[in-house]
Design goal:
The protein is an alpha+beta fold. It contains 24 helices and 35 strands. GO terms for molecular function: alanine-tRNA ligase activity; aminoacyl-tRNA deacylase activity; ATP binding; catalytic activity, acting on a protein; transferase activity; tRNA binding; zinc ion binding.
Length: about 900
């Protein structure tokens, strides 16, 4: 068999299917676009859902790709098994209503066994089929597979719920008896069983049924082929590797990690090997995830990145690596993958910066976690507990990044266990919260054959004019084609339309449809792309409309003009953000409405007020410069050579539109734009905020809305000047400074009076000492402003050593209660703890609290319970 590099395997697979008429698709970003059901792109087919469920009909129904993917459901297994990864590549070939099993099976066999391609030994290949799928077995045998190399397996049916599904065939490679880890007579000793000898390298799904919402199955209007070959797995075969990690995809990372370790080498022992594998796997995943725009955070995909970095960091410490080191592996990852993903090396400096910052932050967090763990162990021993509770172990895991095994290890060293069942309950509860937080939109819709089959030509002329004559070619009412409609809602496709279909963040045009008498017969409420690309109008029908009749389609010009101006503003804003924040910043989504625009972009943190001012200034300067806005139609490669910025490359066809704003901005864009930036008049940022892990959002307005926004601010300023009694608006800031200084002075005077009053009360309160159970207690209600003054009184009490135990309470003007409890050194030596006392009495004032053994505090909402609480403090002491 050939010995191929990972780059050669990837390229050979794509070249093979290109020779069979497939379009080679570029790997989509790991962050899903327009799919709220997924946290990450987790398979090759994840990018194909819009084609498989019929939402979009591709230009070429044959496609192939090597899709980078992330799966995070079993992170804990990474490093402990031969083939678990967080990041992996899935080679796939796809047919959307074109070829089926009679074509794909012979092609698969050709790719695998032909000397021109992979050249595998047919004797080492085994096939599994679904028992009821008799046809696939026949086709495999016809292709050249021996019958005794075909196994029937009951679970060879791919079904993820509602949507396309069908039987599948899995291909296994026999690695030889030396890899077998089960007995000869073990029931799992066969291709498809749980063993190490037979390695699954490819899965071919014959998607021929619709799984309907009611649980039944019906034939698909258009059958599909979906295949998946894990690159890491198949490379391990070509490179004769025991696991995926001993391949050229991982070993350079492992070797570099060994150079940084304290003399550790891969293969020395099992524990070290696990750490090397975890680091290599996680370094790849975080490099690609950050390169695609995800950033570390406490939620969503950002939390996944943070967790991977922390897990790898801990394994680095096990190898004796001190300090941040993961960031140094980014260029190694980029070099391994440069043939398919040159962008990794191009972004290496930014990716390294992000990882290093997160590593350093975690090292500080780890110290805090270690202090907490030490305290937890000390408390458990003091209280004669034999286990650390699971909630604390989960807090260490969730907040400080401590894997459970690390907490168990430290606890065992101290002669303690960990309540792992309780930990698991906390983990399950978190997973349930995560599931509930995800979108409940369906993963893949049921294929709609009606829309998919509509192939009526339809021309969009809205770039040139907003009024056009078009023949009504298709009318759809309640998912049925009809010849006429008199009223209600309908979907319509015209031979010609000036109405823009929503795309790229730009909202759809609105307007009306008129008949030959200039009467309005329908109102256009929305326009979306039909599966075959036509502009499909959702209309409210007012008068009867008939198929094949010609109508006048009229776009609302005022609405359209405001939208196109705001769209041009998003292009200016995009480039201005790159100029100010850096080239790592890129668009993560947008919405262009007539009255405002919304622009999402990636960035490490919030944008400073100073940088926002710079961005806003740049955009306005480009408006004042009256730059021409030009549109060029060209092929995609020429557009890239021109320097045009592509935002979501998988959406572009061979012919693309490039919008050029003077010499300042050039982007791929199919939307509508102003003819000159001067049309925008004025640009004003309304807000900047965070919307997710590493994603910021700017909302802005232009033209009339910008003027109205500034006018509103001006009115507020004038009103403020009047209330502050200043004659000129320019004096408002100095008047505010003056007023704030006066307020500060008054507050200091008030505080001094309150302190004096509290001290006077203390003289009386501290005289009231009770002796209970051999200990002295001062327990009283005082009239002070809040917790700060209670703490001051406690400091006075401690300095003078007035009693063993102190309990003070106060009720504030807003009906809240503050309690404080303190213990002398002698009381603590006798086993008394302020935290225990405060927990006992706080419920009586309708609250709760806690603290250290020497000082604790609580809040409540029940002033009437104050005396009961003070009385309970005496009873607590009496029982000690």
């Amino acid at each position: 068999m050939k010995e191929l590099s990972s780059a050669e395997v990837r390229q050979m697979y794509l070249d093979f299917f290109k020779s069979k008429g497939h379009d080679v698709l570029k790997s989509a970003p790991l962050i899903p676009q327009d799919d709220p059901t997924l946290l990450w792109i987790n398979s090759g087919v994840a990018t194909m859902k819009k084609y498989f469920d019929g939402t979009v009909v591709p230009k070429n129904r044959r496609m192939t790709s090597s899709q980078k993917s992330i799966r995070t459901n079993d992170i804990e297994n990474v490093g402990h098994t031969a083939r678990h990864h967080t990041l992996f590549e899935m080679l796939g070939n796809f047919s959307v209503g074109d070829y089926f099993r009679n074509e794909v099976i012979p092609w698969a066999w050709e790719l695998l066994t032909s000397p021109e391609w992979f050249g595998m030994d047919p004797e080492k290949l085994y096939i599994t089929v679904y028992p009821k799928d008799k046809e696939s077995k026949k086709v495999w045998m016809k292709a050249g597979v021996a019958e005794d190399h075909i196994y029937q397996v009951e679970d060879n049916f791919w079904d993820i719920g509602e949507g396309p599904c069908g039987p599948d065939s899995e291909i296994f490679y026999d690695r030889g008896q030396e890899f077998n880890n089960v007995a000869e007579d073990d029931p799992e000793n066969y291709p498809g069983g749980e063993n190490e000898r037979y390695l699954e390298i490819w899965n071919i799904v014959f998607s021929e049924y619709n799984h309907k919402p009611d649980g039944t199955y019906e034939p698909l209007p258009h059958k599909n082929i979906d295949t998946g070959m894990g690159l890491e797995r198949v490379v391990s075969v070509f490179q004769h590797a025991k696991t995926n990690f001993e391949t050229d995809l991982f070993m350079p990372i492992i070797d570099e990690t060994a150079q940084m370790s304290a003399g550790k080498q891969y293969g020395d022992n099992a524990d070290s090997d696990v750490s090397f594998k975890v680091i290599a796997d996680h370094a790849r995943a975080i490099t690609f995830a950050i390169g695609d725009g995800a950033l570390p955070s406490n939620e969503g995909r950002g939390y996944v990145i943070r967790r991977l970095i922390r897990r790898a960091e801990l394994h680095g410490q096990k190898l004796g690596i001190d300090g941040a080191f993961l960031y140094k592996l980014v260029p190694i990852v980029g070099d391994i993958m440069k043939s398919a993903y040159p962008e990794v090396l191009e972004q290496a400096e930014f990716i390294q910066k992000v990882i290093k910052m997160e590593e350093e932050r975690f090292n500080n967090t780890l110290k805090d976690g270690m202090q907490l763990l030490d305290q937890v162990i000390a408390d458990a021993k003091e209280n004669k507990q034999d286990k650390i509770d699971g909630k604390t172990a989960f807090k260490l895991y969730d907040t400080y990044g401590f894997p459970l095994e690390l907490t168990v290890e430290y606890a065992n060293d101290a002669g303690l266990g960990v309540n792992e069942d309780e930990f698991q309950s906390e983990m399950d509860a978190q997973k349930e919260r995560a599931r509930n937080a995800r979108s409940n939109e369906k993963s893949m819709g049921v294929q709609n054959g009606l829309l998919t089959d509509i192939k009526t030509p339809s021309e969009y002329v809205g770039y040139e004019k907003l009024d056009a004559q078009g023949v009504l070619k298709d009318i759809i009412v309640d998912n049925q084609l009809v010849d006429e409609v008199a009223n209600g809602e309908a979907k319509m496709i015209f031979s010609v339309t000036p109405f823009y279909a929503e795309m790229g963040g730009q909202v759809a045009d609105q307007g009306v449809i008129k008949d030959e008498n200039e009467e309005v017969v329908a109102e256009v409420e929305d326009v979306q792309h039909a599966p075959n690309g036509q502009n499909m109008h959702t209309v409210k029908v007012l008068k009867k409309m008939t198929k094949e009749h010609e109508y006048e389609l009229v776009v609302n010009k005022q609405f359209h003009d405001k939208v196109r101006k705001n769209h041009t503003a998003t292009h200016l804003l995009d480039q201005a953000l790159r100029d100010v924040l850096g080239e790592h910043t890129h668009q993560a989504g947008s919405l262009v409405e007539p009255t405002y625009l919304r622009f999402d972009f990636t960035n490490l943190g919030s944008v400073t007020a100073e940088d926002l001012d710079k961005v806003e200034r740049i955009v306005n300067e480009k408006i004042w410069d009256a730059l021409p806005v030009e549109t060029v139609e060209t092929d995609i490669e020429s557009a890239k050579k021109m320097g045009a910025i592509a935002l979501f490359s998988e959406k572009y066809g061979d012919v693309v539109r490039v919008v050029k704003i003077g010499d300042y901005s050039m982007e791929f864009c199919g939307g509508n734009h102003a003819d000159n930036t001067s049309e925008l008049g004025l640009f004003k940022i309304v807000s900047e905020s965070g919307v997710g892990a590493g994603v910021r959002r700017i909302e802005a307005v232009t033209s009339k809305e910008a003027y109205e926004f500034l006018q509103q601010r001006n009115n507020i300023l004038n009103e403020s000047a009047a209330k502050l009694k200043v004659a000129q608006v320019k004096n408002v800031p100095s008047k505010i400074d003056q007023t704030l200084a006066q307020i500060k002075e008054l507050e200091q005077q008030k505080q001094a009076l309150e302190d004096k009053f509290a001290s006077q009360q203390a003289a009386d309160v501290f005289k009231n000492v009770q002796t209970i159970n051999g200990k002295t207690l001062i327990a009283s209600q005082v009239n002070v402003s809040g917790m700060n003054q209670l703490r001051q009184l406690a400091d006075q009490w401690k300095a003078k050593g007035l009693s063993d135990v102190l309990v003070l309470g106060t009720a504030t003007e807003d009906g809240k209660v503050n309690l404080i409890a303190a213990m002398s050194d002698a009381a603590m030596k006798a086993g008394l703890k302020a935290g225990d006392l405060i927990k006992e009495i706080a419920p009586l004032v309708g609250g709760g609290g806690g603290g250290r053994p020497n000082l604790a505090q609580a809040g409540g909402k029940k002033p009437a319970g104050m005396q009961d609480a003070l009385k309970a403090a005496a009873e607590w002491l009496e029982n000690k």
